[in-house]
Amino acid sequence: MSATTAPTLPGRADRSHERVTLPRVIRSEWTKLWTLRSTRWSLALAFLAQAGLGPLIALIEMARWSHLTLQDRLTINPIDHSLGGWHLAQLAVAILGVMTITGEYHTGMIRSSMMAAPKRLPVLWAKLIVFSVVVLVLMLVAAFIGFLGGQAIFTQHHVNVALSAPRALRTIFGAALFTTVTGALCIALGTIVRRTAGGIALFVGVFFVLPGLIEILPSTTANAIHPYLPNNAGGTIAQALADPFTFSAWGGFALFCGYTVAVIAIAAVLLLRRDA
Amino acid sequence: MIEVRGLSKHYGERVAVDDLTFTIKPGTVTGFLGPNGAGKSTTMRLILGLDRPTGGIATVNGKQYRDLVAPLHEVGALLEARAVHTGRSGYNHLLALAQTHGIPRSRVAEVIELVGLESVARKRVGGFSLGMGQRLGVAAALLGEPATVVLDEPANGLDPEGIRWIRNLLKGLAAEGRTVFLSSHLMSEMEQTADHLIVIGRGRLIADTDVASFVARASSGAPVRVRSPQLPALAAAVKTAGGTSESLEDGALQVYGLTSEQVGEIAAAQQLVLHELTPVQVSLEDAFMDITKESVEYQHSETSPTDVAMPVSAGSAANGGDS
Predict the structure, then answer these.
(1) pTM (two decimals)
(2) Buried-most residue among A222, B144, B185, B248 (CB within 10 A)?
C-alpha cells in the first residue's frame, strides 16, 4: 500500500537498505555516549578512582609503616586495599547510568530517540550493551592498574601478593563486574523514575541508606536480612575478604544480577507502556 | 498517507482527543487547526507513536508508527516540544539519529546545509537560539528524505525572519510533492500554503474540508452589502423576505440572513435599482474564529457533539448563538 500511495520524489535515492536494526541502534547509542561532556568526565573519574585510589592507600600505609601497630601490619589486605577504588568508581558509574536515560527525558531527546526507534526496547538494550561494555573494559583495565600499582608499592615492606595469589584475579574481575552491573541497574532505575534526582536518590537509598536502617533492627533480624541487600550481595565478588554475614562471592553476585534483571524487566515493561 | 480512525486519548478524566477520524492524502499540504489546547499536539504524538491511544488507531502508510521498519524514511516530524539533548552538538545529534537507520554521514552534512546551520553545527545545542533550534528540528525531520512531513506549530516563537524561512520551507516541501501535515493555531500562514484543512476543537473534529469550502461555509452567514437609490424600499423588501439589515455610514445597506443571490432576486422582483451587490468576504482567519468560537467559549458546558460539529448555520453566525 505504501509503495502505491506514497509519491515518489524526484532525486530521491534508493534507501530501502536503510532500516532500524539493533546493531545500528547500538552504533547510535555509542555516538550518544561519547558526545556528551558529562559522560567523558564521569568515566574519567571512575577510571581514576578504580586505578588510583588503591595505590594511594598503599602509599599511605607504606609511608606510615613505622607508626603502625603489629595488629595493623598484620591486617593489611593487599588485594582489597589496592582495589578499594571501586567504592568511588561505583558511585560515578551509577550516577552516569541514571543520567544516560534521565538526561534524555529531561531534555526531550527521548522523543527523538523513540521516533527513530519506535519499537523502544532496542533503545534500552543498546544503552545497556554500550554502557556495560564500555564500563567493563575501562574498569578491568583500571582494576589491573590499581592492583599491580598497589602491589608494586606494597613490596616496600613485603606485604605484596602476586596476581596468582588466591582470590586476586577473582577480586580484580569482581570489582569491575560489580561496578558494571551496578551501572546497568542504574540505567533501569533511571528508565523507571525518568528523573535524574529521583534516580540517583533511589540508588543512594537502596545502596547506602537501606543498609544503615537495617542495622538498627535487632541483630538476629539484621543479620538475616543483611546478605540480601543489593550492595552486600553484589559486593561479595569485589572483596577478597568479605564479612561473615554474606553469601559466597559468586552466589552473592548471582543474586545481585538477579535483582538487576528484575529491575530491567520492570523498566522494559514501563518503557513500552508509558507515553514518551 | 496518514489515516486516523476513531482516535481517542484520555489523560485521567480529561479527554484530549475524542473519536477523531480523518485522512491526510498523499501530496497535499494539510493544515491542522484548532485553538490552543484543542488536542493538535496530542493527535500528532499519537500518530508518531509517542503516546498510546485510549481508543482507535492512527496509521502512516498503512502501518502503525511503531511497526514501521524505517520510520525516518516514511515520516519526518518536528514536534513543538524540544526533542534534542542540549549537551550535544547539532551535528552529533543528527548523526546519532542517522545511525539508527544506517543513513550515511554525507546525508547529515546535506541536511545541515539545507537548513543553513553549517556555522554552528559543531556547537552545543544548549547555546542555540529558538530559530536555530527549529532549523535543527527541520534537519532531523528531513534526514531520511521522508515523503510525509509532520510539523507541530513550526512558526511558534520565531522572529519574522524565521517565520519567512518556515514559510518558504513549507512551499518548497509542497513543491517537491511531499505530503505536509502542519498544525497551527494561527490562520495567516495556512491561507497561503494549505490545500486542505482539518479543524478540531476540544479534541473533536469540527471540519475536514478544502480551504475554499471552509471559507464558503463560514461565509454562508456573512452579510451582503448593497447600494441602491431606493434604500428604504429595499430594506422593507428584505425584512419581508425574512432578512435583517442595517444602514452603514457610507450610505450602503448591510443585509444579514440572505445570500447575495436572494437579495438580487428580491430587488428584481420589486423592480428596485441596485448600484452595488457584494457578498462580504470572510477571511480564513475570520472563518476559523467563527467556527471554533463555541469550542473555545463553552469549554466547560455540556454542549452536545452536534452543536460543536455544526456551529455555523444561517442567522447564527452574527451573534454566535448556540440554540
Answers:
(1) 0.84
(2) B144
Q: Which of residues 249-268 of A touch B (CB under 8 A)?
A: none
Average pLDDT of chain B to the nearest whole number: 85
Q: Closest partner residue to B92 among A35, A104, A116, by Cβ?
A: A35
Does the beta carbon of A4 lie under 8 angstroms from any beta carbon of chain B? no
Residue of A nearest to B66 (CA): A118
- B85 touches A: beta carbon within 8 Å: yes
Using a CB-CB distance cutoff of 8 angstroms, which residues of chain A are in contact with residue B93?
109, 112
3-state secondary structure of B59: strand
How far apart, in whole angstroms, are the C-alpha atoms of residue B111 and residue B118?
10
Whether this model's ipTM surpasses 0.85 comes out as yes
Check if B164 contacts A (Cβ < 8 Å): no
- Name chain A contacts of B147, Cβ cutoff 8 Å: 6-9
Pick B71's closest partner by Cβ from A21, A116, A274.
A116
**CA A174 → CA A181, A234, B287, distances in Å?**
10, 9, 71
Inform me whether the pLDDT recorded for B323 exceeds 70: no
Residues A130 and A36 sit within 8 Å (Cβ to Cβ): no
Residues of A in contact with B68 (CB under 8 A): 118
Query: Residue B102: left if φ>0, alpha if ψ -120 to 50, beta else—which one?
Result: left
d(CA A233, CA A227): 6
Instruction: Give the separation between CA B13 and CA B140, rounded to whole angstroms.
Output: 35
- Over residues B115-132, the pLDDT tens digits come to 999 999 999 999 999 889
Q: Which of A9, A16, A109, A110 to mutate to test the interface with B (most CBs of B within 10 A)?
A: A109
How do B196-201 and B253-256 pair as beta strands?
A: unpaired
Give the C-alpha separation, B142 to A28, whole Å: 18
- How far is Cα B179 from Cα B313, in angstroms, rounded to an integer? 32
Question: By C-alpha distance, which of B315, B313, B311, B314 is closest to B297?
Answer: B311
